[in-house]
Design goal:
glucan endo-1,3-beta-D-glucosidase activity, 13 helices, glycoprotein, TIM Barrel, signal, Glyco_hydro_17_plant, 9-stranded parallel beta sheet, EC 3.2.1.39
């Protein structure tokens, strides 16, 4: 499943008061680091020079940008702000195929600015696995060629190379201890990627949005659990850990997936997370108060120290999304309302970004802690490992699986599986678009729904995966816009 969600149990409520004691002494703790994503899909933003001044005035000393715009990189020069730059997905092919192109790109976009502009990481692509242009095959060669270019310019010891993944890269994410990567990506992408990260001392980059999980499963996910507020917690039946926030549960699912491949030693950076302050009527949970609570409590959670329940000593670096509301973004209303600031440089809501600022900050409700170990799981006998995938979910075909797997899965679903495939027959309502992927998606979803969305019924030999957003929307799990109306999963139903 793509979005990690957890059912709340009201049984065996722990005594929570002690969990919050440490919040009163946060000034003594060494914590993680907060950064911010500086997106610029807007026509009303302040100049890059003013943006740098804004960052510094609020104590933000890490920023991630989605390109290598010269005006931005020059403005960041001598600012003391550490920078993550992005190599766009559309350049992956050229960088992967030609080492000389990688040399030129690094020289032109990195070497000429560093160290005056403190570039610390290059994000090679962004959420490549959900890119409709299918650039996955070029990711690992591109990462290696960029690293080789850093070596050429003697920058490899100070600048790391990674690539942000969305949670859609996970095949399983509930419970967290059962986290695993999509099987078709393990040998081709994740093993070589994680080995590269290990060899270069680089972190895995992850984009995690509890908002999407809550929006699609608000009937089973507590809002307090999603917003780091006081709640009874959710126990992972696989490892006995109690989780008090959906964010921690999502991150630990990725850690579990890494551990399953024997890469426990690799650190993680959360390159995107956030909550919209405004949304359309059907975007459950998108509000000013919820955005303030999520981001404010997240800042507290990160800066007061401590990792996740499964990795309690691993402090996190987290980049909030995003610096500004961006008025030219496509998609639902929420997409234009993730900003911490208006283009006028006024805060959308008042939250701190530093330990010092936390001293005067209070959420309207008490925030939750990261987690703790309990002796008896709330969910016994394996819990939801063999249960149903809760909430509103759909099963779609993976275009990367290949024609043979898609056809085999389609044949099974429409045959022995008992899926309703009449609407995709010639002349029927869902026959168009007449593509293998579209027909397979329809059949896979029909089978999945008929099986009551039971775990394991959306696999088809690795040819399918679960989405948690309505199939006719623009978003699956990540914030990367993908129009999947062509899947027509609701067609004829």
């Amino acid at each position: 499943m793509l979005c990690l969600h957890q059912k709340q149990s009201m049984d065996n409520k722990p005594s929570i008061s002690l969990f919050f004691f440490f919040l009163s002494i946060f000034s003594l703790a060494d914590g993680g680091s907060i950064g911010v994503n500086y997106g610029r899909i807007a026509n009303n933003l302040p100049s890059a020079t003013k943006v740098v001044q804004l960052l510094k005035s609020h104590g933000l000393d890490r920023v991630k940008v989605y390109d290598t715009d010269p005006s931005v990189l020059k403005a960041l020069s001598e600012s003391g702000i550490r920078v993550t730059v992005d190599l766009p997905n559309e350049l992956l092919y050229s960088v992967a195929k030609r080492q000389s192109f990688a040399y030129q790109w690094v020289h032109r976009n990195v070497a000429v600015y560093h160290p005056s502009t403190q570039i610390e990481t290059i994000a090679v692509g962004n959420e490549v696995f959900v890119d409709p242009h299918n650039t996955t095959l070029f990711l690992i060669p591109a990462m290696k060629n960029i690293h080789n270019a850093l070596v050429k310019y003697n920058l490899h010891s100070t600048i790391k190379v990674s690539s942000p993944i969305a949670l859609s890269a996970l095949q399983n994410s509930y419970p967290s201890s059962a986290g695993s990567f999509r099987p078709e990506l393990v040998e081709s992408v994740f093993k070589p990627m994680l080995e590269f990260l290990r060899q270069t001392g680089s972190p895995l980059m992850v984009n995690a949005y509890p908002f999407f999980a809550y929006e699609s499963n608000s009937d089973v996910i507590s809002l307090d659990y999603a917003l780091f507020r006081k709640n009874p917690g959710v126990v992972d039946a696989g490892n006995g850990l109690r989780y008090f926030s959906l964010f921690d549960a999502q991150i630990d699912a990725v850690f579990a997936a890494m551990s399953a491949l024997k890469y426990d030693d690799i650190s993680m950076v959360v390159t995107e997370t956030g909550w919209p302050s405004k949304g359309d009527g059907n975007e459950i949970g998108a509000s000013l108060d919820n955005a303030a609570a999520y981001n404010g409590n997240l800042v507290r959670r990160v800066l007061t120290g401590g990792g996740t329940p499964s990795r309690p000593k691993a402090d996190l670096t987290v980049f909030l999304f995003a610096l500004f509301n961006e008025n030219k973004k496509n998609g639902p209303t929420s997409e234009r309302n993730y900003g911490l600031f208006y283009p006028s440089e006024q805060k959308v809501y008042d939250i701190p970004f530093t330990v010092e600022g936390l001293k005067g900050y209070r959420d309207r409700q008490s925030p939750a802690t990261g987690g703790s170990r309990v002796s008896t799981p709330v969910l016994g006998g394996g819990g939801n490992l063999s249960g149903n995938v809760s909430g509103r979910t759909w099963c779609v075909a993976s275009g990367e699986a290949g024609k043979e797997k898609l056809q085999a899965g389609l044949d099974y679903a429409c045959g022995e599986g008992g899926a309703d495939c009449h609407p995709i027959q010639p002349g029927s309502t869902c026959y168009d678009p007449n593509t293998l992927e579209a027909h397979a998606s329809f059949a896979f979803n029909s089978y999945f729904q008929r099986k009551s969305r039971a775990i394991g019924t959306c696999y088809f030999g690795g040819a399918a995966y679960i989405v948690t957003q309505p199939p006719r929307t623009y978003f699956i799990i990540s914030r990367q816009p993908i129009h999947i109306d062509h899947l027509r999963l609701n067609c004829g139903h």
